[in-house]
Structure prediction request, 351 residues.
Amino acid sequence: MTAAATPWRATVPARIAGIGSYLPDRVVTNDDLAQVLDTNDEWIRTRTGIRQRHVVAPEQATSDLAIAAGEAALADAGLTAADVSTIIVATTTPDHTVPGTAPIVAAALGTEAGAFDVNAACSGFLYGLRVGTAMVATGDDVVLVIGAEALTRIVDPTDRSVAVLFGDGAGAAVLVPDEQGAIGPFDLGADGQDPSMLWTCTGGTRTPVSPEVLEDRSHFLTMRGGDVYRNAVARMTASSKLVLERAGLDVDDVDLFVGHQANLRILEAVRGRLGMAEERTHVTVDQHGNTSAASVPLALADARDAGRLTPGDTVLLTAFGAGLTWGSTLVRWHPSGTAAADQQDPTTETA
Ligand code: COA
Prediction:
């Protein structure tokens, strides 16, 4: 464990005071998929590391997952929705095109706090964290950042090249002010020159839904797997190195590496290029599949639940997704539930 006495360079005056997650009850294994698709457990495991994924119930949408994760994160921080200044939902699978998902989540949590969505695909949580920490730094007391996705709703269940990769879920983090700064520096990047590498070709304003679109099934997610793979490895490696350099830290200063859980081979390649020890890498892709913007906060919550995070630990987060988009940051881990204590009126404190 590295409990640096001084903040790293370029941190934002904010910290994570609580985290939470939610996974739908239904688990679909590789063998389950092999019943309905021309695939098998061995192909999926060796190519991706995925063994199972959670899938939304018919009556659930992305906001339902986000609400549950948000509630869990607030409880973990010892706060309620009444304390929240702003809610950010990172998602690429919103309940509706209009309105955003965040206002629906805010209403269900019982607040009229500002609420908006961020769409940076699988990098969405890193983007949400960047916006949320900036808001805390400029006066917001409590920002709830949620990554939530129902990816299985936009994947063609008959297309084996993508149907085996994705899962559903949500993870959330509560951000509060922290003078010393326990998040950052950040690196965010995007390259939109070829969005067709990973996209839903139709169903948006360029080609709205029509009988033809439904007929050719082009409203479902498609991907050029090899190109995505190469870009994911290169971008997450470079972005991770950049934040370490900006912080003045070495890879050995990182206690836990929590990368976007798209594919075990991608994670392993990034880890290897960074020179990160295997035992310092947290892996959930085997259990969750690729949950896009939910993957990093879900993995963070899973690491905490597994006892892999100790106060003072330095955690490296990195993600990559459609766009292309990517992002990385460092987090110094704090004990949960301390936000409420920080907010206590000092005159009511007992000796
Ligand atoms: N089950 C069985 N066979 C499958 C299959 C499946 N689910 N999906 C594809 N195949 C077949 C292909 O049809 C192809 O068959 P062919 O050789 O007869 O044409 C063969 O397997 C190899 O396909 P290929 O696409 O070359 O496999 P790959 O080794 O490149 O692995 C991915 C495919 C998708 C696993 C890999 O490209 C990848 O991980 N890409 C990144 C995906 C990702 O993480 N996206 C999200 C990023 S945010």
Notes: Residues 202 and 216 are 10 Å apart (CA to CA). The pocket of coenzyme A is lined by residues 39, 43-44, 47-48, 122, 160-161, 164-165, 223, 225-226, 228-229, 232, 262-263, 266, 290, 320-321 (CB under 6 Å).
